[in-house]
Design a protein that fits this description.
The complex is a heterodimer of chains A (239) and B (324).
Chain A: E1 2-11, E2 14-24, E3 29-33, H1 40-47, E4 55-60, E5 63-64, H2 70-75, E6 78-80, H3 93-101, H4 108-121, H5 137-150, E7 155-159, H6 167-182, E8 186-190, H7 194-200, E9 203-208, E10 211-216, H8 218-223, H9 225-232
Parallel strand pairs in A: 3-8, 3-9, 6-7, 7-8
Antiparallel strand pairs in A: 1-2, 1-4, 4-5, 9-10
Chain B: H1 3-25, H2 29-54, H3 62-80, H4 84-106, H5 111-131, H6 133-136, E1 142-143, H7 158-180, H8 183-193, H9 195-200, H10 205-231, E2 233-234, H11 236-239, H12 242-255, H13 262-281, H14 288-303, H15 308-316
Antiparallel strand pairs in B: 1-2
Helix pairs in contact in B: 1-7, 2-7, 2-10, 2-12, 2-13, 3-4, 3-5, 3-10, 4-10, 7-10, 8-10, 12-13, 13-14
Classes of the chains: A alpha/beta (239), B mainly alpha (324).
């Protein structure tokens, strides 16, 4: 479904992504982990069209999307959320979601129906008339997901939608992510909370300093010496 | 429709009836002139609001579009004998094309930088009008012969202008209302609120803003043409000077940007104040009316940042489908 081929990205003289290659298959949940500054969000920005890769190509459902704009990539069925949430602050939750739905629906009426459905799915219906700026962190994250879902994505990139949640909210968000997967949406997820990401992902990609240090099942990745080193420092890696 | 909807509909109809019927009972040309100015500026502020209020791209160059409308229809009539009814559309087409060019060049600029770029654009237009004497007669201006006739869009009485002005205003309000309820309106607002989020959700922000700019500049030009037909004499200072752009922005901001009726409410409140102050104080203390005008402006912006209409709407019609 998604193929990233030899992608690299530089900020000025600094390489922030070095020769990244991997594939994501339909129906998978793939986790993306790595210490702060490893390049996870940059990779999301490259895939979703906000940055152009310096080298390499990205294929989505067979089409090369590495030169497309974010809006066109979204319309092809690849949508992302933002780690630093970006709600439309002065609009209601409902209108936020309607705008997402408009990318696929013919008219306002159809988009409103779709938005109702999505709010029900993410259990935000009681908050539909609140303004974007009045939401708590947990609800902002949920709204990010709701808006993205409204665009009917085949592949959804979730950028730390679980960060900053309390244990209860976290449980709800995990349930939501699983629900989305069951509905046939392929998920590519950045997350810092290891127990969570290990629990939900089929496969995991680990980045460190812009390099792809490991790809594999959660168990493999958790035991990979390079991953341990990246997170804990070399002193902690068992000889 | 809910009972609230019914109430709003009645208020709207009553308001329309007042503006449609009241001029019939006004015999004094001074007051009729007030009506015409309110309609012209209300409509113009509404046109400005489409790109600057909904789209958040604050333009200080709309005097150019207004002036292009005024000069195009007037010149076509004077030089080629083209009826202003047709000439106004030529002006709208030129303004629209220029608006798109301006957008293509300047939409990459954000907030203040965009406003400054458009300010320069308006200033250039004004300077051209002043100095391209072969075309515009410069500061001497152009005079339309006062021979009333419907085909020439010159009305014998002020009432003709009142109703045509009202027609333009209603057209702008209707177009704004339709935009507010369309994909274009939703997309403009999404862009204004957060560009990255809008793009991630599939909003083609560039195209959307160009469409809004084209509509906004075309409407401004149509109103400019009408204004020229009312004045029957145009020169750079009456239809294209930079103060026009500032004034239209102020009316819209004071009334409430990004709303359907806000810009009109701004004109409705400020035009009478301006006329009254100028008439009362103009000779005794020249310039004092501007001071008072400025003071009121500051108070409104300080206490009602969403504008007068914006505040009223939030209090009385928070979820109205009519008063948007």
């Amino acid at each position: 479904m998604l193929e990233v081929r030899n992608v690299s990205k530089w900020f000025g003289g600094n390489p922030v992504l070095k020769d990244i290659s991997f594939e994501i298959h339909k129906g998978e949940i793939v986790g993306l982990i790595g210490p702060n500054g490893a390049g996870k969000t940059t990779l999301f920005n490259v895939i979703s069209g906000f940055y152009r890769p310096k080298t390499g190509d990205i294929f989505f459902q067979g089409e090369n999307i590495s030169r497309l704009t974010p809006e066109d990539i979204c319309r092809r069925g690849l949508c992302r959320t933002f780690q630093i949430t970006k709600p439309f602050s002065n609009l209601t939750v409902f209108k936020n979601v309607v705008i997402g739905a408009l990318s696929r629906e013919k008219g306002i009426r159809e988009a409103e129906n779709k938005a109702e459905e999505i709010l029900e799915l993410v259990e935000m219906t009681p908050k539909r008339d609140l303004l974007g700026r009045s939401l708590t962190i947990a609800d902002r994250k949920r709204l990010e997901v709701a808006r993205a879902l409204a665009t009917s994505p085949d592949l959804l990139l979730l950028d730390e939608v679980m960060a900053g949640l309390n244990p209860n909210e976290l449980k709800e968000m995990i349930a939501l992510v699983k629900k989305l997967s069951q509905r046939g949406i392929t998920l590519f997820v950045i997350e810092h909370i290891m127990t969570v990401i290990m629990g939900i992902s089929h496969r995991i990609i680990a980045l460190d300093h812009g390099e792809q240090i490991c790809v594999g099942s959660p168990c493999d990745v958790a035991e990979d010496p390079k991953v341990l080193e990246a997170y804990l420092g070399e002193d902690y890696v068992a000889p | 429709m809910s009972s609230g909807g019914k109430r709003d509909g009645i208020i709207l109809l009553a308001g329309m009836a007042v503006f449609a019927l009241l001029p019939l009972f006004v015999k004094n040309d001074f007051y009729l002139d007030g009506f015409i100015l309110i309609f012209v500026w209300g409509a113009f502020a509404g046109a400005w609001n489409i790109i600057s209020g909904y789209g958040g791209m604050v333009s200080l160059g709309h005097n150019a579009f207004f002036g292009i409308g005024a000069y195009t229809s007037t010149l076509l009539f004077l030089r080629q004998g083209v009826s202003p009814w047709i000439g106004m559309w030529a002006g709208a087409a030129i303004a629209s094309a220029l608006g798109i060019v301006l957008g293509v060049i300047c939409f990459r600029l954000r907030s203040h930088y965009f406003a400054l770029a458009t300010l320069a654009f308006g200033q250039v237009a004004s300077i051209i009008a002043l100095n391209w004497r072969g075309l515009t007669e410069g500061a001497e201006g152009l005079t339309l012969p006062i021979r009333p006739g419907f085909a020439k869009m010159i009305f014998a009485t002020k009432l003709g202008y009142v109703y045509m002005g009202l027609g333009l205003l209603v057209a702008v309000l209707l177009i704004t209302y339709l935009i507010d309820n369309s994909k274009l309106g939703y997309y403009l607002v999404a862009f204004r609120e957060n560009e990255d989020a809008a793009r991630a959700l599939g909003v083609r922000t560039g195209r959307v803003r160009l469409a809004a700019m084209a509509i906004s500049s075309a409407l401004s030009a149509l109103i400019g043409s009408f204004y020229a037909q009312y004045l029957l004499y145009i020169d750079p200072s009456s239809v294209i000077r930079i103060q026009i752009a500032v004034q239209v922005a102020l009316f819209a901001i004071v009334g409430g940007v990004g709303t359907v009726f806000g810009p009109f409410v701004g004109a409705l409140i400020f035009i009478p104040i301006t006329i009254f102050l100028r008439a009362r104080l103009g000779t005794a203390l020249p310039g004092l009316h501007m001071v008072i005008y400025g003071g009121i402006l500051i108070l409104v912006l300080f206490y009602m940042p969403k504008g007068i209409y914006g505040m009223l709407r939030e209090r009385f019609f928070p979820s109205s489908r009519i008063f948007k």
